[in-house]
Amino acid sequence: MVKIMQKDEFLSQLRQAIKALSVDEQEEILADYDEHFRMGIADGRTETEIASALGDPRSLGKEYAAISLVNRAEESPSARGLGRAVIATVGLGLFNLFVVFLPFLILVLMLVLILIIGFSLTCAGPFLTGYAILTLAGLLPIELDTPPLAALFFGIGITSSGLLLMALDYWLTRICYRQGIRYLRWNIAVISGKETL
Amino acid sequence: MNTGIRIPPLRQIIIWLAIISVVSFSIGGIITVLEGGSYKSGKNSTVTPVEIKSGEIKNAVVSLEIDSGSINLSPGTTDSLMSGNITGLHAQIGPDILYTSTEQVGHLSIKQESSLSFDPFIKEDQCDLSLRQDMPTSLSITMGSGDLRILPGRANLTDLLIDQGTGDLTLDLSRWKGTHLMGSIDEGVGSMIILLPKNASIAARVENGIGSRSIIGLDGEKGTYYHTVLERQTPVISLSVNQGIGDLTMKVVNES
Question: Do A167 and B13 touch (CB under 8 A)?
Answer without folding.
Answer: yes
